[in-house]
């Protein structure tokens, strides 16, 4: 094994270790999140970490088999984030400035 191949393997192994640590920390954040939004963001970032892990595995194996899977995961992560953002935007919609009208004012 040549020096560049050794450096390549060491760097990919370090990337895998960092991805595993990030995944563990994200699982902790998802389970402890004080709000639903924190948990949703944690799940979105977890999808990105899964994509990074698949990219590292693909680089380690020198195989492009995982690229379509990474693309589908990215699409699902994006649509999930947009869906959660729309749900939270509707849920947290501010009340009108004038407030609710009384029966007497409607006439």
Describe the structure.
The structure is a single chain. The protein has 107 residues and is an all-alpha fold. The protein has a single domain, classed as Helix Hairpins (Orthogonal Bundle), CATH 1.10.287. It contains 4 helices and no strands. Helix 1 (3-32) runs antiparallel to helix 2. The radius of gyration is 22 Å and the shape is elongated.
Quick recap:
With 107 residues, the protein is mainly α. 79% of the residues lie in helices and 0% in strands.
The average pLDDT score comes to 85
SSE pattern: HHHH
CATH architecture: Orthogonal Bundle
CATH class division: Mainly Alpha
Rough shape?
Answer: elongated
Distance between the termini: 87 Å
Q: What's the CATH topology name? A: Helix Hairpins
The portion of residues forming beta strands comes to under 5%
Q: What number of domains?
A: 1
Number of helical stretches of at least 4 residues: 4
Radius of gyration: 22 Å
How much helicity do the residues have?
Answer: over 70%
Membrane topology: Multi-pass membrane protein
Keywords: Cell membrane, Membrane, Transmembrane, Transmembrane helix, Transport
Pfam families: MrpF_PhaF (PF04066)
Subcellular location: Cell membrane
What structural keywords apply?
mainly alpha; Helix Hairpins; 107 residues; MrpF/PhaF-like; 4 helices; 79% helix; elongated
Walk me through the topology:
Elements: H1 3-32, H2 36-61, H3 67-91, H4 103-106
Helix pairs in contact: 1-2, 2-3
GO molecular function, one term: sodium:proton antiporter activity
Keywords: Cell membrane, Membrane, Transmembrane, Transmembrane helix, Transport
Membrane topology: Multi-pass membrane protein
């Amino acid at each position: 094994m040549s020096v560049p191949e050794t450096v390549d393997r060491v760097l990919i192994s370090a990337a895998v270790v960092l991805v595993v640590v990030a995944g563990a920390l994200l699982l902790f954040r998802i389970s402890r999140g004080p709000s639903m939004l924190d948990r949703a963001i944690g799940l979105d970032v977890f999808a990105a970490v899964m994509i990074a892990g698949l990219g590292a595995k693909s680089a380690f194996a020198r195989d492009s088999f995982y690229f379509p899977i990474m693309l589908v995961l990215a699409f699902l992560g994006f649509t999930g984030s947009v869906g959660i953002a729309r749900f939270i935007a509707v849920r947290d919609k501010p009340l009108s400035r004038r407030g609710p009208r009384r029966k007497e004012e409607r006439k």
